[in-house]
């Protein structure tokens, strides 16, 4: 690794640590949620959405594209989360004004470590996808 590459890597790690610290502060006011672990790269919480108990883990890491990504996983003990629950977790842990995506990889690289966990991914610097929504006669749709 060249000196320039080492310097860029150190800056990216510093930026990622800053994002993690900022995210931890922003989640400090989650009412009704209990933080159950506080890790170096994120935290885990237990709470309720629409009256149902749910577990959430979030972390931030610099991914292969060079930018920090927020990863949020959510799970129930006995079933998959519903769309409404995913949307509420996205609002609470990622933010109503940020993009987030679920990733459906090719089967050759698919890994499922838990049958009742879903994941959201949100880039923290710029959204890498085009705007998919379109205007229709009743508003906008995607």
Rounded to the nearest angstrom, the radius of gyration is 17 Å
Percentage of residues in strands: 25-35%
List segments where confidence is low: pLDDT < 50 over at least 5 consecutive residues.
Answer: none
Instruction: Supply the helix-strand structural class.
Output: alpha+beta
Strand order of the largest sheet: 1-2-3-4-5
Distance between the termini: 43 Å
Count the E strands: 7
Return the string of H and E elements: HEEEEHEEE
Q: How helix-rich are the residues, as a percent range? A: 25-40%
Q: Number of DSSP helices?
A: 2
Quickly count the domains: 1
- Could you report the average pLDDT, rounded to the nearest whole number? 86
**Given the C-alpha coordinates, what overall shape results?**
globular
How would you sum up the major sheet? 5 strands, antiparallel
Explain what this protein looks like in three dimensions.
The chain is built from 2 helices and 7 strands; from the N terminus they run H-E-E-E-E-H-E-E-E. The protein has one domain (3-141). Helices cover 25% and strands 32% of the residues. The model has no long low-confidence stretch (mean pLDDT 86). The strands form 2 sheets. It has a 5-stranded antiparallel beta sheet. A two-stranded antiparallel sheet has the order 6-7. By secondary structure, it is of the alpha+beta class. Strand 6 and strand 7 form a beta hairpin. It has helices spanning 3-26, 83-94, and strands spanning 34-38, 42-49, 52-62, 68-75, 117-123, 134-136, 139-141.
